[in-house]
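## retry 2 of 3
previous attempt timed out at serialization; input unchanged, resubmitting
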Amino acid sequence: MVGVKVIGSDPDFQPELAAAGSRLAVVKFTMAGCRPCIRIAPAFNMLSNKYPQVVFLEVDVHVCQATAAANNISATPTFLFFRNRVRVDQYQGADAAGLEEKIKQHTENDPGNSEDSDIPKGYMDLMPFVNKAGCECLNESDDCGFDNCLIKDSSYLESDCDEQLLITIAFNQPVKLFSMKLLSSDFAQAPKVVKVFINLPRSMGFDDAERSEATQTLELSEEDYKEDGLIPLRYVKFQNVQSVTLFIKSNQGGEETTKINYLTFIGTPVQATNMNDFKRVVGKMHPRTFPLSAKAVTHTMLTYKHTHRASNCPPRALNECSTCGVYKSFVF
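## retry succeeded, writing output
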């Protein structure tokens, strides 16, 4: 989709998100008379043409009050990022460069952008939900470390002292795992026997991994390493996953070291958007949730509630904060 699609009414919002599927959807929440919104509009339109694989939507908070309330919008412009109707990130303010950088973070090395994506309908690549600070890899090479296998390029993760690796992937919210994807440019060094554990209360060592019963044990073959190949997991056992630990026990050719070019998981967040919750919000809208007009906001002194982007913003701001460019429009 090229160009920005304006949402004309509350009932139109959820179908547009659903139509985006696993592709990234960037939703701009705007308001008539908001100077930062007007300033960023040309850049937002430009970005929609520059990133045709991304869905760009625009919501006026006065026209679609229920949608704004359901998404807890308290300032404009606010940009929310969705995949499979699940909110994965947000950005606030009128800094076009900062907004584009955020879009790049979510689109680089993203298989969900491909028209011929191998991801089954209803599922998504869970890489945006990986909490890198909570991840760990034991026996990684100093030169070819763990971070390399989270990026789909020519770099790779390689084991150090022997063929074994112990990898823990943490997620920033509970997820359901449907399958796993592993890529290795050298099949002889690709993982063969993999023990999969979930939600371990503490870090696991190699001895623990050897003797502990796994949630699932996989014996991988050449078929699993095809570009469009997915390694199925026992879905019923992976319904509320906060972390997953992979014990790479051996590789295909009995080589001294193991190599992984790319590793990711396919599934869904546990807390997906619920249409019934959205409808209940619509029924509970308070008439003063949003100002009736931009003119009414213009003469209102707004209290700073630490939602500005910059740490040096003034303690009180009238509408637009000159420091961070956020239009504080909904806090009275």
